[in-house]
Inverse folding.
């Protein structure tokens, strides 16, 4: 049985105090405020919201501050808080056709209807350290001009119109909710997409990269990547219609993939899809590549044995909170377990030495 360790509570209290001091840092340096984190570390805030499954920039900023910048710890904090919130209902599916776009690009059609909007991106920067930020602070040289909303139909609809893109399946079935039910196999596509959208960005990126290097049957083009805000609507039974309850920022990516056809389908392009909260385009692109790789069976393709094609491997290992919990539990006390292993090894060695002595005699 486990034996209580004396002094553990005092040591834990001291560790908490030490952590608080380290989190604060040098008291002579101004304290980092929640609005500063929310406004100036937006991409970190967006990742925490996406993988924490809770859209609240202030709470995500608070989690980042409390976690000393450890984003996985911040995601853990946000998910834990999320479990305490009551549920009043479910919103209607967001309509990304009506997105108020801030960034929209396509790698397949240069002259896309509605135009291409570069938006705020690192894509065209030189990746050189800007020491001016250290010397003079961050002061934008000019104010961005507000533009009127544009009509920007989804670019893949152009291929749809010519019958070159696989049709979207029609379904009125309510998908399973991964936040309320444990993940079970086999997982249909809606459940897989839920797991990927809150999966660890680094893991999903690694899986996507593996498909590009040949571990899978995908050759993707970014049909469209769009970032912007979408209205969130909720059906009110007493009113009989949906009302606008707010808006959220989303990143959506649709990839175009080659498909040679099967016994039941003609040669056509197929889709990969990614939709993530916030400005998280690396994650959305990665998600769309992995989504397409996981669709090999429904499209009648061969299983090449690639990791990204194995739904059980991908979905059971993409969640960074589950992975962190299982990994970090091994640093907690395992004294009794180890003592039993130690005694077993000693017994085996004694038996082996005795057998050797008897053989020598």
């Amino acid at each position: 049985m486990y034996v209580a360790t004396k002094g553990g509570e005092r040591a834990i209290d001291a560790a908490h105090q030490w952590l608080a001091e380290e989190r604060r840092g040098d008291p002579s340096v101004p304290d980092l405020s929640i609005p500063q984190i929310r406004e100036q570390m937006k991409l970190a805030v967006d990742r925490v919201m996406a993988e924490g499954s809770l859209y609240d920039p202030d709470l995500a900023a608070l989690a980042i501050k409390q976690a000393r910048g450890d984003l996985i710890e911040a995601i853990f904090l946000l998910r834990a808080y999320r479990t305490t919130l009551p549920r009043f209902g479910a919103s209607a599916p967001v309509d990304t056709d009506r997105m108020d776009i801030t960034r929209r690009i396509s790698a397949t059609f240069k002259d896309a209807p509605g135009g291409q909007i570069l938006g705020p991106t690192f894509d065209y920067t030189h990746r050189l350290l800007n020491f001016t930020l250290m010397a003079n602070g961050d002061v934008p040289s000019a104010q961005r001009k507000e533009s009127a909303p544009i009509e920007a139909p989804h670019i893949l609809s152009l291929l749809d119109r010519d019958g070159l893109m696989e049709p979207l399946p029609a379904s009125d079935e309510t998908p399973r909710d991964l936040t309320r039910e444990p993940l079970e196999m086999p997982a249909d596509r809606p459940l897989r997409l839920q797991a990927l959208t809150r999966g660890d960005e680094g893991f999903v990126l690694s899986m996507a990269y593996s498909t590009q290097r040949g571990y899978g049957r995908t050759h993707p083009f970014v049909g469209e990547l769009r970032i912007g805000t979408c209205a969130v609507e909720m059906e009110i039974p007493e009113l009989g219609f949906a009302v606008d309850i707010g808006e959220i920022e989303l990143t959506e990516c649709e990839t175009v993939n080659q498909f040679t056809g099967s016994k039941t389908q003609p040669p056509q392009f197929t889709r990969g899809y990614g939709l993530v909260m916030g400005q998280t385009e690396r994650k959305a692109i990665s998600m769309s590549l992995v989504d397409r790789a996981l669709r090999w069976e429904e499209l009648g393709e061969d299983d090449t044995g690639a990791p990204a094609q194995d739904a059980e491997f991908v979905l059971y290992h993409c969640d960074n909170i589950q992975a962190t919990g299982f990994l970090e539990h091994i640093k907690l006390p395992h004294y009794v377990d180890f003592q039993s292993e130690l005694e077993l090894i000693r017994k085996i060695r004694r038996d082996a030495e005795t057998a050797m002595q008897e053989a020598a005699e």
About this structure: Residues 335-360 form the longest helix (26 residues). The chain has a mean pLDDT of 84. Residues 96-120+147-318 form one domain.
